[in-house]
Amino acid sequence: MLNFLSKVGDYAKETLQAAKYIGQGLSVTFDHMSRRPITVQYPYEKLIPSERFRGRIHFEFDKCISCEVCVRVCPINLPVVDWEFNKETKKKNLKHYSIDFGVCIFCANCVEYCPTNCLSVTEEYELAAYDRHELNFDNVAMGRLPYKVTDDPMVSPMRELAYLPKGVVDPHVVPHTAPRAGKHPEDILQELEKQAERQTPEASSKN
Ligand code: SF4
Ligand code: SF4
């Protein structure tokens, strides 16, 4: 009899615990039912990449001086700079340039250190391919400028979630032309200049 009662007790305890867990799960579900959906209907809608997004690298063939700085600063020596020395002009002539984006880690070191600024990062992130060898971009492929999300007539651009104004949870209602939360680097520079101007007369009056 005692054995039977203890089994019934265990069963009741487990039932209560299961009910508690189901309640916890449903409370999350009901909580989400009162929120607005923030799903991005890709590829018809796309988020606008953030200002410092490091996407596929763009290359300007005519600006490259074949110095190979990009190769030396790359953590995996990835860029391939194919050049030949011109004895008459005593300069290097660039023949081909390529970066394998299947291997690149998009650190943008090469972009930072290139002395002629012929490399730049773009906001292109759609690099999916069936064969990873297709990701080995030559100078022609790297010279192509990507379509901006905001210029693509086939796409509704949406403000990145991190840039939504305070209290807004739905990126669909914020036009892409609306100012972003936070300050642009040029605004910060302007403020710093004004601050410096204000401090200079104060410092000279003390002297
Ligand atoms: S982004 Fe980084 S990993 Fe890619 S090529 Fe440039 S330096 Fe190398
Ligand atoms: S650092 Fe710039 S200029 Fe020099 S080889 Fe690389 S891409 Fe060309």
UniProtKB/TrEMBL annotation:
Pfam families: Fer4_7
Compositionally biased residues, Basic and acidic residues: 183-200
Domain of life: Bacteria
Assigned EC number: 7.1.1.-
One Gene Ontology MF term: oxidoreductase activity, acting on NAD(P)H, quinone or similar compound as acceptor
UniProt keyword annotations, A-Z: 4Fe-4S, Iron, Iron-sulfur, Membrane, Metal-binding, NAD, NADP, Plastoquinone, Quinone, Repeat, Thylakoid, Translocase
Gene3D superfamilies: 3.30.70.3270
Family designation: Belongs to the complex I 23 kDa subunit family.
Function of the molecule: NDH-1 shuttles electrons from an unknown electron donor, via FMN and iron-sulfur (Fe-S) centers, to quinones in the respiratory and/or the photosynthetic chain. The immediate electron acceptor for the enzyme in this species is believed to be plastoquinone. Couples the redox reaction to proton translocation, and thus conserves the redox energy in a proton gradient.
Name of the protein this chain belongs to: NAD(P)H-quinone oxidoreductase subunit I
Taxonomic lineage from the root: Bacteria, Bacillati, Cyanobacteriota, Cyanophyceae, Oscillatoriophycideae
Protein encoded by which gene: ndhI
